[in-house]
Amino acid sequence: MTTMQTSPVVKGDGPQLNKRHRSFRPNTKHVPILATLGLLVAMYVSGLANYPRFDNPMVVVNLFRDNAVLLVVAVGMTFVILTGGIDLSVGAVISLTTVLTATLLKADWPPLVVLPAVLVLGALIGAGQGAVIHYFKVEPFIATLAGLFLARGLALFINEDSIPIRNDMWRELSDFRIPLADGVSTKPIAIVALLTLLIAAVVLAWTRFGRNVYAIGGNADSALLMGLPVGRTKIAVYTLSGFCAALGGVLFSINSTSGWAGQGNGIELDAIAACVIGGVLLTGGSGFVWGTLLGVLVTGLIRTLINFQGDLNVAWSQIIVGVLLFSFIVMQRLVTRKAR
Amino acid sequence: MSIVKKRLFWPSLILVVMLGINVFTSNQFLTIQDGHLFGTLIDILRGSAPLVLVSVGMTLVIATGGIDLSVGAVMAISGAVACLLIQDLGNQNSVASVLLIIGIAIAVALVLGLWNGTLVAVVGIQPIIATLILMVAGRGLAQLVTDGQIINVQSGPYSTLASGFFLSLPVAFLIAVAAVVLTILLTRRTALGLLLESVGGSPTASRLAGISARRITVMVYVVAGGFAGLAGLIYSADIKSADSISAGNLIELDAILAVVIGGTALIGGRFSIIGTVLGAVIIQTLRITVVALDIPDKANLLFKAVVVVALCLSQSPEFRAKVFGRFKRRPAVEKVAA
Amino acid sequence: MGEQSPVLEMTGIRKVFPGVVALDGVDFRMFPGEVHALMGENGAGKSTLIKTLTGVYEIDGGEITLGGKPVRISGPLQAQQAGISTVYQEVNLCTNLSIAENIFIGREPRRFGKIQWGRMRRRAAELLARLDLDLDVSAPLSTYSLAIQQMVAIARAIDVDARVLILDEPTSSLDTAEVEQLFRVMRRLKESGVAILFVSHFLDQIYEISDRLTILRNGQLISEHRVEELSQVQLVEKMIGKELAALEDVEDKAQSNRERAAGAKPLLEAEGLGRTGAIAPYNLTIHEGEVVGLAGLLGSGRTELARLLFGADKADQGEVRVDGKKVSLRDPQAAMKHRIAFSSENRRTEGIIGDLSVRENIILALQASRGWARPIPRKKQDEIVDKYIKALQIRPADPERPVRNLSGGNQQKVLLARWLITEPRLLIIDEPTRGIDVGAKAEIQKLVAELSTGGMAVLFVSAELEEVLRLSHKIAVLRDRRLVEELENSADVDADRIMQTIASGASS
């Protein structure tokens, strides 16, 4: 509950004059998140009801494992979207990271050099995009599109083929299992993803940087006039998103013990969809990373359900995500319209 | 107008330079063979047709302050619909049937555009999100249409869309030219252009000036859908099959890029169709130049990225001021004062 | 208080924009504990001077000293740190954040880098209590009215221990009670030694609260006075640099009109027209050639009443008759078919299209009513536009210039031209003179009088009672979203009489 601003502190009877100005509007901030949560529970319950082996705890655990990369990327995306921007380059940064990691490890670079190097590279790509957006007033959509071309272009240039990773550390990390309970275990990547989420939640709710992110998304001009470091914050969120994407790429490379330039194609869309389903407003200024988590889980659970069903065309998962996007967007629209 | 012209100077120069490179590197830049024009230039014109179509539709949408992310998915769907129907024909070479099917496929695309337009203008959803829905779900729909298979067709009349020639010019090119001319006439010979720019500039003020912003907004999405559908047909006629995955993949990004290169701002308002066409042709020329220069295919994207970055920066007034400002201080002052 | 040394002294300030000298060697000073009004028409250099103080612009010449020490103000943050805080006309806060955050963002109380939410909320509540406000500080700012948002902005400004507080037109969207409340706060701040720079278009307010005033014109300093040394008439003369004959001229015209409109036939009749939550059902009849003024405080329903008559908002009850026939005004287009025109109070967001040229802005409504398929030939456009640029003296007289580069008064004239070329029978104008300079104001008032002489009915909405009294044949008074009284304007109707109605709610 770290992100919630709790109940009012000031109460009591003020002068009549001031009372008059309150318009009674319910706090609509949490409605989309609650709806997503409700949907998630409903989907899970229907899974339980229809499929015999759905009650296996591994279903839930694997949900986190299979969507770890998406979660990490979506968390970074949440920061960017909260400022009212968008980052299309995350999928390409993932592909560049995996290719670079695999190539460097193949050239016998020490893994403890490779790891920070690729993470820093991702952050730098993000920072570069942020700088172009802020200093040269290029639209985020276009700037990160150029970043997408650049990062994926670099990845393809380095190697078009899939490169296997034979490094011991990567292999051990890939094979490592963290036991959670009897017969239930998960991979380290899921834990990394959850840690990322936790840190992001704390940063957004409890630090100046986090609040500046919301302020800029609410009204960037005001934020500037209030003396907030708008430029620095904007560059920082893209840096963060680039870092998260690179981290996602590292997780990918661990999971598949390979690097490939085609990796992460289209994940930017999944991340944006997860944010929207989780109630993050694409115009900025409103939303929580917890919502993003729920959005990621919903899209993941759809795929799980389709797998369990077995005889469905996988195209259905896209269509269902589309339908969900539609209903959540319309719902958000209705909620905000009613409130007005 | 002069502002648009000024903004188009650099893109034009880049295009001329790239075409110049092609004149020297390609052994056939422009020749006549079997009564048709052939060569690199014709390849560029023919190959840019789908992107030009999609980008022109995108320009209108962007002029109203919107964006259409679903164009690639619409391309996939229209190609899928057309190929599915043609496959079932007794005689795939029947011109009348193929024309009818083309009509049906475009009608489907128009309906999809109507869906987008309704979400944006009637339900009131942000365009980027509204069209994201169809972008995500559309490819799934196309796959359902083709049942996940790639449908191959052997239809002469259908292939003509992409590879045919008329009056010694490629049919695809002629279709694109017709669409561009029609759009320019429609926007500049009527008041549609003004009303579009007005709606893009301020929807509220436009409504209060008595403009039916809603109707105009729906209309541009329908047009964009129709053009995307047409582009999808050309694409699938070119490869003689319906490929739900790669048809129009990432074309929305190329189209938006073309619009921006052409000097239309993403926030809406003033737009330039000619600028967009220029942008689309640049992107296609780039693709072909990279091949002509014997740059390995894998560097294509990297090369494109460099050009995109250069173009974006060259169009940013802030960038120009920061980089060239020191050297050109006096002319800058004169320019504004004039 | 004696002659202390000034807390802020600006000497020889110069600011040049490409092609324009915005400030030309302006001197300006402020003493601690005074309210100092900065006066001038639009384009006089007020905004520019303020922006050089707040760090939005950097000066090209001159010197600024603060507390005796020379300073260079390079950005908003730096200005704040130097003790200069600003509250702008359009409240610059983030409405998606809570009140407490809006007050403290950027300087939240922290421990180990972590924001202390509890402490922040407590301090916010204390701070607001000093301004006599009791609000839920954790509620999003968007749930409060503009007036409250303004107070929150002031709370934010004074919390940074401001030595100089700049209030840029803070009262333009407040009602009388709220203005009083603001003045109380200002007086309290004054006592604590803060120097307040006050900008307002309301002369009465200037005279009520200010100690000293500085007048600018065309980027130059005209003079500085103690308020009691200068009468209102002298002040206006210094501001506009010409005699007030223009305004009196209007008065005469309107007087003669009053008699003329008496026998006219009804053009529009509203019966039980209303919209839930916006305006209670009302009856109103507007005759041909009649000017009907809407008086009432901000938020009394003036704008809401007018918007229903244009279909800008849809009425949910009642009916409207034009020429005795029942009509449906479901949207602006429907209203325009009955030749009703409406110019919104929000010039920038609901009026002009900033990117488009003056010409395009002017023909927009006419073109919209013709539909997109029947464009107005370019030659005809140029004729119409030239005619109205001349008639309304739109400056600069360049039809192809983007309208956003024009001053507020000229933008207002462009909007009037937009509607006049549609030849409306009823022209609804909401606050056409707000935020524009005195000269343009007089021209617009004169125009309204002339139009009604020509037979056009005008529904005139204004916050300024004098203006309503001067122009109207009939005055409708609103209070709490209800039309409470309709008065024929005559010699014995004056501002006090209307104020009484506004205050008490009904005629006796």
Concise summary:
Chain A is mainly α. Chain A is built from 15 helices and 4 strands.
Summarize the SSE layout with pairings.
The complex is a heterotrimer of chains A (340), B (338) and C (508).
Chain A: H1 16-19, H2 31-50, H3 57-66, H4 68-82, H5 90-106, H6 111-135, H7 140-158, E1 163-164, H8 168-175, E2 178-181, E3 184-186, H9 188-206, H10 208-218, H11 220-225, H12 230-256, E4 258-259, H13 267-277, H14 289-309, H15 315-339
Chain B: H1 2-7, H2 9-25, E1 31-33, E2 36-38, H3 40-47, H4 49-63, H5 71-87, H6 95-123, H7 127-145, E3 151-152, H8 156-163, E4 165-166, E5 169-170, H9 171-189, H10 192-201, H11 203-208, H12 213-239, E6 241-242, H13 251-261, H14 273-292, H15 300-315, H16 317-324, H17 329-337
Antiparallel strand pairs in B: 1-2, 3-6, 4-5
Helix pairs in contact in B: 2-14, 3-14, 4-9, 4-12, 4-13, 4-14, 5-6, 5-7, 5-12, 6-7, 6-12, 8-12, 9-10, 13-14
Chain C: E1 8-17, E2 20-30, E3 35-39, H1 46-54, E4 61-66, E5 69-71, H2 76-82, E6 84-87, H3 99-104, E7 110-111, E8 114-115, H4 117-130, H5 146-159, E9 164-168, H6 176-191, E10 195-199, H7 203-209, E11 212-217, E12 220-226, H8 232-240, H9 245-260, E13 266-275, E14 279-287, E15 291-295, H10 302-310, E16 317-322, E17 325-327, H11 332-337, E18 340-343, H12 347-351, H13 358-370, H14 378-391, H15 408-420, E19 426-430, H16 438-453, E20 457-461, H17 465-471, E21 474-479, E22 482-488, H18 495-504
Parallel strand pairs in C: 3-10, 3-11, 6-9, 9-10, 15-20, 15-21, 18-19, 19-20
Antiparallel strand pairs in C: 1-2, 1-4, 4-5, 7-8, 11-12, 13-14, 13-16, 16-17, 21-22
Task: Describe this structure as you would to a colleague.
The complex is a heterotrimer of chains A (340), B (338) and C (508). With 340 residues, chain A is mostly helical. Chain A has a single domain, classed as Orthogonal Bundle (ABC transporter involved in vitamin B12 uptake, BtuC), CATH 1.10.3470. Chain A is built from 15 helices and four strands. In chain A, strands 1-4 form a two-stranded antiparallel sheet. Chain A has a two-stranded antiparallel sheet with strand order 2-3. Chain A is globular and about 60 Å long. Mean pLDDT of chain A is 84; it is low at 1-26. Chain B has 338 residues and is mainly alpha-helical. Chain B has a domain at 49-272. Helices cover 72% and strands 4% of the residues of chain B. Chain B has 17 helices and six strands. In chain B, helix 5 packs antiparallel against helix 6 and helix 5 (71-87) crosses helix 12. Chain B starts with a helix and ends with a helix. Chain C is an alpha/beta fold. Chain C folds into three domains: 8-240, Rossmann fold; 245-339 and 424-504, Rossmann fold (3-Layer(aba) Sandwich); 352-423, no CATH class. Chain C is 38% helix and 25% strand. Chain C is built from 18 helices and 22 strands. Chain C has helices at 46-54, 76-82, 99-104, 117-130, 146-159, 176-191, 203-209, 232-240, 245-260, 302-310, 332-337, 347-351, 358-370, 378-391, 408-420, 438-453, 465-471, 495-504; strands at residues 8-17, 20-30, 35-39, 61-66, 69-71, 84-87, 110-111, 114-115, 164-168, 195-199, 212-217, 220-226, 266-275, 279-287, 291-295, 317-322, 325-327, 340-343, 426-430, 457-461, 474-479, 482-488. In chain C, the strands form five sheets. Chain C has a six-stranded mixed sheet, with helices on both faces. In chain C, strands 18-19-20-15-21-22 form a six-stranded mixed sheet, with helices on both faces. A four-stranded antiparallel sheet of chain C has the order 2-1-4-5, with helices on one face. In chain C, helix 9 runs parallel beside helix 16 (438-453), helix 13 (358-370) crosses helix 14 (378-391) and helix 13 runs parallel beside helix 15 (408-420). Chain C is globular. The interface between A and B is large, with 44 and 47 residues. Chain C: Pfam families: ABC_tran (PF00005). Chain C: Residues 8-243, 262-505 form the ABC transporter domain. Chain C: It is found in: Cell membrane.
